[in-house]
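Backbone geometry:
***
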Amino acid sequence: MEKGGGQPEQEESEVSEAAGCSETLLQVNDVDPPVVFLCGRCQVALGDSLAWRGNDEEDDMIFLKSVSENVVVAKEQDISMAPKEFGCTTVALSCSGCSLKLGKIYKCTPKRLDCRRGLFCFDVSAIESYILGSGQNNALSEDRKLLTFETCASVEEEVEKGGRLFSVAKTPVKMETQPLSVGGKSS
């Protein structure tokens, strides 16, 4: 097996709508934030949206023209017996981190699947994606201050005060009752 690390061995075929494929062909534009595709099991990076070539919602696949070295391309070719791709020659893709089967590269296809030939075709169920810039951690706002040595001492002081108040509150209260006196007489 060999590492992916870029282009498939076979000459890359251009994806075009004229090829008769059912794939949705999307162009990455400046409005869409970049996406990183990760292994669904061990989370290593497999590729990104800069290599995006399209997707097929019916088959739950995405197509990339290049991938990271974390994608292992099998050396042996398989002939598919699946009804939609019967007779296609494919090469399996797997994760170098955990060996999860990720998808395939089509080496030989009928005309209707020519647009997939030479691309890295990932099963959507085997991958996850991360949109760059979507993290929830932001810089501290002005009303939140960093914990420094100076503020740490005052925090310790407050904790000690709270501990003393807690121990006082925990002390049982002893109540003594005395008879009431009415008009100088006790009852």
Notes: The chain has a mean pLDDT of 77. The first strand starts at residue 2 and ends at 3. The CA atoms of residues 74 and 82 lie 19 Å apart.
